Amino acid sequence: MTDDFAVTSPNIWNHADIYEVENRGVDPDGAIWAAMAGVVDLRGRTVLDLGCGSGYHLPILAAAADTVIGVEPHAPLLVRARERIAALAASGANVSDVQVRAGAAQALPVEPGSIDVVHARWAYFFGPGCEPGLAELDRVMAPGGTAFVIDNDATRSTFGQWFRRAWPDYDAAAVERFWARAGWTRTPVDMRWQFDSRADFESVVGIEFEPEGAAAILAEHDGNSVDYAVNLYHRTYDGALGGQSGSVGGEA
């Protein structure tokens, strides 16, 4: 599997070190993890981290899950993820059941019906256009399995205002309708960015927005944190191709 199969992610692909800073500053209160836990318990499960990037979330998932598989299409990030797991293993961390595989959302390197939980955070699934990846989820999800997609909620929060200004043609309502038609449940989550320094905050804003937009944000916003709303989309599969069971919690 090569980058030819991937949807480019210019922030992490071009600025992996700064994206590592971003990962450390996202959701310091664990609001996203808490919302996921309200839907499904990861204990004893086989979890697929789809678009795992440099593997930042793999050890977090491994702390609860039985087996974790990270899938990443971009070769440099794949190397980083494998190096992260190897370093953790060498330090004595319990990551023996973590695997990192080359692959993309449209062609997952896992067996049919083998995945209990999918975690896809800001990776590939951004509404219309992601249908090939959704078809792959139909193939790989075990009966009763649950898939999660975390994406921006552009309708609210300070970060949402910045997002709307940067991408004025983005139709948040249409994206929400897309997921509802596909049988997914939306749970709104309020979280925040919180960085150790203003310099870290500025560097992350600089990879998430074009230079002019980043400069405007930094001129108007003080400090090293911001409120940030996301949507947690989730769907529980009944095992039939394209089928799903009733939604669990959240807001339709």
Tally of DSSP helical segments: 10
| Proportion of residues in extended strands | 15-25%
- Order of strands side by side in the largest beta sheet? 3-2-1-4-5-7-6
> Mean of residue pLDDT?
92
Structural class: alpha/beta
- Unreliable runs, pLDDT <50, ≥5 residues? 240-252
Q: Which term fits the overall shape?
A: globular
Instruction: Tally the beta strands.
Output: 7
Assembly state of the chains shown: single chain
Percent of residues in helices: 25-40%
Give the N-to-C terminal Cα separation: 36 Å
Order of helices and strands: HHHEHEHEEHEHHEHHE
Largest sheet: 7 strands, mixed
Q: What integer value in Å does the Rg equal?
A: 18 Å
Which helices and strands, and how do they pair?
Blueprint: H1 10-14, H2 16-25, H3 31-37, E1 46-50, H4 58-62, E2 67-72, H5 75-90, E3 98-102, E4 115-121, H6 131-140, E5 141-152, H7 158-166, H8 172-181, E6 185-194, H9 198-208, H10 211-220, E7 225-236
Parallel strand pairs: 1-2, 1-4, 2-3, 4-5
Antiparallel strand pairs: 5-7, 6-7
Structure keywords:
alpha/beta, 252 residues, globular, disordered C terminus, seven-stranded mixed beta sheet, 7 strands
